[in-house]
Amino acid sequence: MRARFVGAAVLAAALVTSSAGATEVVAPPVPLTLAWCLERAQGANPSLAADAAQADAARQRIGPAGALEDPRFSYEASNVPVGDWDFKSTPLSGHQLRLSQRLPFPGLLSNRAEAARSGARAAEAEFDDRRRTLAAEVEKAWAELGFAQRAIEITDRNLDLLRQLVEIAEARYRVGSGLQPDVLRAHVELTTLLQQRLRHVAAVDTAEARLAALLDLPEGARLGRTGELEEPGTIPDRGPLLARVEGASPRLRALQERVEEARRRRRAAQLEGYPDVDVGLGYRVRRSVAGDTVDGDDFVSAGVTLRLPVNRSKWRSRVAERDALLRREEARLRAERAALRDRIRSGHARLVRAHEEVALLGTGLLPQARQSLESSRAGYEVGRVDFPSLLDAQINLVQAELRLVQAQAERREAFAGLEAALGEGLR
Fold first, then answer.
1. What distance in Å separates the CA atoms of residue 205 and residue 184, rounded to the nearest whole number?
2. Domains of the chain listed by start with CATH number
3. Is the CB of residue 91 less than 8 Å from the CB of residue 298?
4. Do residues 159 and 191 lie in contact, with contact meaning Cβ atoms separated by under 8 Å?
5. Which of 22, 226, 238, 372 is deepest in the core (most CB within 10 A)?
6. Is 84 within 8 Å of 256 (Cβ atoms)?
7. Beta partners for 421?
8. What are the distances in angstroms from CA 284 to CA 78, 154, 161?
9. Model-level pTM?
10. What number of other Cβ atoms are within 10 A of residue 247's Cβ?
11. Which residues pair with 279 in a beta bridge?
12. How many CB atoms are located within 10 Å of the residue 56 CB?
C-alpha cells in the first residue's frame, strides 16, 4: 500500500507542479471511458494531491517526535574584574565553556514517536479513503453524464415519432376523420417532451461541469459521449460485506489509528508531569596568575539540573484534556462504525433495487412497450385503435427507455458508493 501511496502522491505533485507552470492541454478520449476518468482523477485531482501532501507531512513528524532536544552550548567570560578587564588579574577569571543536554523522563520520547507514527498511519488511511471516495464521485458524475446524454438521444428519436403522429392527427382532422382533441393532445405531449429535453440538456451541462472539476480539466476541455453504462457485475450478499467492513474500511482504519494516537498522547502527557534532567559539562580556560595554587590549570565541572513539576494541578489538567480527546476519538470511531454499517445496508438495498429494475425493464417492460406500440400502430392504421391509445403507447415507450438507462446509471452509482463505503472493489 505504501508503494501505491507514494506513487500516487508523486504523480499528483508532478501534475500540480506542471499545471502551475503552463496551460495543460488535455484531450479526453472518444468515447469517454470511465477508466480514463479514474486515472485522470487519481493523478490530477487537487483535493487528492492535498491529502497526499498532508500524509507526507505526517510521516515527517515521526523522526522529530522521538528525538532528543538539541544540545546547548554556552560561553561565559567568568569573574573578570571591572577595574582592568583582564583575565590575568585573578585566579578566578577564565573563559567558561559549557555543553548541556536535556534528558526527558523515560518513555516520553517513545510515546511521542508512537503517537506520530499512528498519526502518519491515520493520514495514509485517510488518503486511501479519499482516493476511493473520489473514484465513487467520478463514477457517479460519469454515469449521470452518460444518462443525460442518452436521455437526449432517446428524446430526440421519440420527438421525431411524435411529430409524425402530430402530422397524422392534423391530416385526419383536416379531412374530417380525426378529432380536434386528438390534435391538441398530440401537441401537449410534444411540448412536454420538448420540456424534458431542455432538462436533459441542463443535466448534461451540470454533469460535465462536475466531472471536469473532479478531473481538474482546463477551461475549454470538452467531454464527449461516455462509454456504455451497462455493468454486468454480480450482486454480493450483504452479510459478508458487513463482516468485512471492520478490516477493509480505510476510514475505520484511520479512526482506529487516531484512537491509538490519542492514547499515546495521553500517556505522554502523564510522563511530562514527571521530572526531567539537564546534564551539563563545563570547561574553564584559565591563565597562570601570581599566587595561583594550581599554576593556571584549566577547570572542569559537571552538573545536573532537575525540573521539579510542583504545580500538580497543571499537569493533572493536561492529562484530563488528553483523556477527553481520547474519549472523543473513541466516540468518533463508534459513530463511524455504525454509520458505515448503515451506508452498506442502504447502499446494498439501492444496488439490489437498481439491479432488479434493470433486469425488469430490459427483459420485461421495454420489450412489452415496444410490442404495444407496434400493435397500436397496426390497429390504428385499420381503425381498431383510437389515437389517444396510440399516443399513450408512444409515451410509455419513451418512459421505459429513459427509465432503463437511468436504472443502469443508478446501478453504477450504487456499486461505486458501496465500494467506497466498504473500502474495496466489488466488480
1. 32
2. 2-68+104-274+309-422 (1.20.1600.10)
3. no
4. no
5. 226
6. no
7. none
8. 8, 94, 104
9. 0.81
10. 10
11. 101, 304
12. 18
